[in-house]
User: Which sequence fits this backbone?
């Protein structure tokens, strides 16, 4: 399980369920009533997005991350040595189900890579 | 028939002039431009994310280029001004509402105290009057296009106002060829345009602007040419289409009233110059209409303008005649109007006034000579980069 850091918080990236999305603005239109002519308009690429579950070590780490989405502080590097050179990334959201204890805990996060 | 797949890269480039040079606006991501003889000036909207380094304000000159590769690529689709700017707080999105260069004439009002006599004592050709108004309003062919000149602004060449430009004994009522104080320039231009019919009644001059922002004044009739500029085919390059045939507003008799110059009226009775053009052929009329003494039924339309200074073409004076205007309008009114609307992904340099052909068995358009006159064009690049052109065409039948 690789360790990664963001916003000064170090956490585990759970590879199970990790989803990277690479999408582009592509429109496929079929001309109706004919032999099946198509127009495929390529409108450029979109940024890579990642949805991943992380495990933070403490409630304090969770609170640090939870304060970042929607702020300028959300931009930084999601450093995971296994993926090579760190890339600029923005933290879009952090979510968790309610839990009683304040120890290590799992969170669902969404990221967008900006470089 | 073999299916084909056209893969193309779409491109949108928006440039805003900051007073020094054109600046590329990287924040723009979608645009829509519309041109047509059913709207006074060209219009466009540009959607952009907030921020950016380009200084945009009201009256900033703007140029929109978009298209496809393969295709025309980043061709100029709009040239005009940003008026006004519309911003949304969150998500941060700005909409630049743009108007064509002709919008200056719609916005600028005459500031000359008491108004401006456009015709003078001996009359002035309509194209010269229009040019004078455009110049006073500061209308140009865009930031880089230079002044509007007779190279693109035509007219009948008649000395309009040479016979009647108001009652010289009435100092309170402005003459018909006066540009009133506080009146928008485009209103005067439209008033001149609607009577600018040459003696052969082959068309009527209309002031409009091209996709590139150049101001034109050419003779127009809503009649398609014999050869189509562009041909479209159902099942090949047409996304959706519809046609309506509507006889509303049709007429087989047109009466045109002109000015009321001295000598026409009698005491207690104000008369005007007039001419009625009619045709017995009108297959669109509902049955059972009362018949005129000549045994035919008529439905009339009328038009009046004090800028028309003689009744018959043969009458003396180099001015517009009621007869010419009535003959032109009869050809426009005496028909059922087919309105064809369709959209295409094709990237052609279309423009209002062109002749287009659509082959569509489902709509019953199969004759190779059944062309349509392009009245309105809308060019769109949406936020996903999808390029579409929407055409509204008309045909008299």
Assistant:
């Amino acid at each position: 399980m690789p360790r990664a850091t963001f916003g000064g918080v170090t956490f585990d990236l759970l590879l199970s369920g990790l989803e990277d999305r690479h999408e582009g603005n592509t429109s496929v239109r079929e001309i109706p009533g004919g032999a099946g002519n198509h127009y495929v308009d390529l409108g450029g690429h979109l940024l890579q997005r990642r949805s991943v579950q992380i495990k933070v070590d403490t409630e304090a780490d969770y609170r640090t991350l939870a304060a970042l989405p929607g702020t300028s502080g959300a931009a930084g590097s999601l450093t995971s040595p296994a993926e090579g050179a760190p890339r600029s990334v923005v933290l879009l959201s952090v979510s968790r189900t309610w839990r009683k204890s304040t120890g290590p805990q799992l969170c669902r996060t969404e990221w967008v890579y900006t470089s | 028939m073999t299916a084909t797949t056209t893969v193309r890269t779409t491109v949108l480039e928006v440039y805003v002039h900051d007073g020094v040079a054109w600046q590329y606006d990287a924040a723009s991501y979608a645009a829509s431009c519309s041109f047509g003889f059913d709207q006074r000036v060209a219009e466009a909207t540009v959607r952009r994310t907030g921020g950016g380094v380009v200084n945009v304000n009201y009256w900033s000159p703007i140029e929109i280029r978009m298209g496809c590769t393969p295709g025309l690529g980043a061709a100029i689709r709009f040239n005009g001004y940003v008026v006004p700017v519309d911003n949304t707080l969150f998500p941060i999105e700005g909409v630049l509402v743009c108007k064509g260069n002709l919008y200056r004439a719609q916005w600028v009002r005459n500031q000359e105290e008491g108004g401006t006599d456009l015709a003078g004592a001996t009359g002035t050709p309509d194209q010269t009057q229009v040019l004078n108004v455009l110049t006073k309003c500061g209308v140009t062919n865009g930031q880089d296009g230079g002044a509007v000149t007779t190279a693109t602004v035509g007219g009948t060449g008649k000395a309009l106002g040479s016979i009647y430009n108001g009652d010289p004994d009435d100092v309170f009522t402005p003459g018909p060829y006066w540009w009133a104080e506080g009146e928008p320039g485009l209103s005067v231009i439209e008033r001149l345009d609607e009577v600018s019919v040459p003696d052969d009644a082959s068309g009527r001059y209309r002031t409009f602007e091209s996709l590139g922002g150049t101001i034109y004044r050419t003779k127009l009739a809503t009649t398609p040419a014999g050869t189509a500029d562009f041909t479209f085919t159902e099942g090949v390059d047409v996304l959706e289409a519809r046609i309506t045939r509507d006889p509303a507003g049709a007429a087989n008799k047109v009466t045109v009233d002109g000015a009321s110059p001295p000598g026409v009226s009698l005491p207690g009775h104000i008369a005007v110059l007039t001419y009625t053009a009619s045709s017995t052929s009108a297959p669109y009329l509902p049955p059972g209409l009362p018949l005129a003494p000549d045994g035919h039924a008529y439905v009339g339309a009328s038009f009046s303008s004090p800028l028309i200074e003689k009744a018959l073409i043969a009458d003396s004076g180099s001015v517009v005649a009621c007869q010419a205007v009535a003959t032109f309008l009869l050809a426009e009114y005496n028909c059922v109007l087919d309105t064809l609307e369709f959209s295409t992904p094709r990237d052609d340099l279309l423009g209002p006034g062109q002749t287009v052909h659509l082959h569509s068995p489902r709509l019953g358009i199969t004759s190779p000579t059944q062309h349509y006159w392009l009245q309105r064009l809308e060019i769109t690049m949406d936020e996903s980069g999808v390029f579409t052109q929407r055409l509204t065409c008309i045909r008299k039948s």
